[in-house]
Design a protein that fits this description.
- This protein is mainly β.
- Helices cover about 5% and strands about 65% of the residues.
- The chain has an 18-stranded antiparallel barrel. A two-stranded antiparallel ribbon has the order 14-15.
- Strand 8 and strand 9 (about 150-160) form a beta hairpin.
- The protein starts with a helix and ends with a strand.
């Protein structure tokens, strides 16, 4: 009996050790969207992330399942995809990442994955970070130099046919970020500016996007304005504060000379967040979007 108990204890120890460096996290959200004059739609977005670690090396798989259902039309669309799948490690102070992963969303881009193998190698010395990337999106390989000088964060990325430069700083409580993408190809240049500050508990933000070079088809964007394509010119302001435990944000912006007003109210709930968005766009119908999101 003692031997059986000992074997069980050892097995339990081995099992716990085997799974000690594996973590599972994720998030799920469901939306009810009602647009005047159209069918109400329901949608779900479930993300599951698994990370396994061994020393300085980790393997990550990030899966996403989405679905949309039209109430009256009867349409049903569901899909599942691997968003990120990569291995990362550190060798002699250099960080190495190989696989597939989504780029970050910004005022000048919508993060995407080109489904081709990518590699990223970076090394930081004396506060200056040098990063080499290859296979990211449709662009060729690039080298990025970044760091902070006199309280200003700088980043300069050099492609074969373009440069991407970013500046950000905070002065007297005002935060500002400026980005300029300068390409050799005609009609491909674009810039963005974001400025924010807080006054009496209210966070005020101003943003501006310019991708209107002659002949340009515009840029994608997935930040202040939400997911957008074909953005040539855009600007907007927002005010955000807390009222009675709710976060309330008002946004007024125009994209290609089309005005939109949005009121967003979000409230923390047990294990998640409930958010209601009321939107009105010139020349379009008004809409209401109700979202419940949980993380685990």
């Amino acid at each position: 009996m003692k031997k059986q108990l000992l074997i069980a204890a050892v097995a339990a120890t081995m099992t716990s050790a085997a799974f000690a460096d594996v973590s599972i996290s994720g998030a799920a959200q469901m939306n009810i969207n009602s647009v005047s004059g159209s069918d109400t739609t329901y949608s779900t977005d479930i993300d599951l992330k698994i990370v396994g670690k061994a020393g300085d090396t980790s393997a990550t798989i990030d899966m996403e399942s989405t679905g949309t259902d039209g109430v009256t039309s009867g349409t049903l669309n569901h899909g599942m995809k691997i968003k990120n799948s990569y291995v990362s490690t550190s060798i002699a102070g250099a960080n190495i990442k190989v696989g597939n992963w989504y780029g970050s969303d910004s005022l000048l881009g919508n993060g995407s994955n080109d489904d081709a193998a990518q590699i990223s190698v970076d090394y930081t010395m004396n506060g200056v970070k040098v990063q080499y990337e290859d296979g990211t999106g449709a662009a060729s390989d690039s080298v990025t130099v970044s760091g902070t000088v006199g309280g200003v964060s700088l980043s300069h990325e050099i492609f074969d046919t373009a440069t991407d430069t970013k500046f950000s700083t905070t002065v007297a409580g005002i935060s500002a970020t400026y980005r300029t993408y300068d390409a050799d190809a005609n009609a491909s240049d674009k810039t963005s500016l974001e400025v924010s500050t807080e006054v009496s508990g209210v966070t005020l933000t101003y943003v501006d996007v310019d991708a209107n070079e002659t002949g340009s088809t515009g840029t994608t964007s997935d930040a202040f304005f939400g997911a957008q394509t074909g953005v040539k010119t855009a600007s907007g302001v927002s005010a955000s504060t807390s009222i009675g435990g709710n976060k309330v944000t008002f946004k007024a912006y125009d994209i290609n000379d089309v005005d939109t007003n949005k009121l967003i109210v979000s409230r923390p709930m047990a294990g998640g967040t409930f958010e209601a968005t009321f939107a009105d766009t010139d020349g379009s119908n008004s809409s209401v979007d109700l979202e419940l999101k949980v993380s685990f």
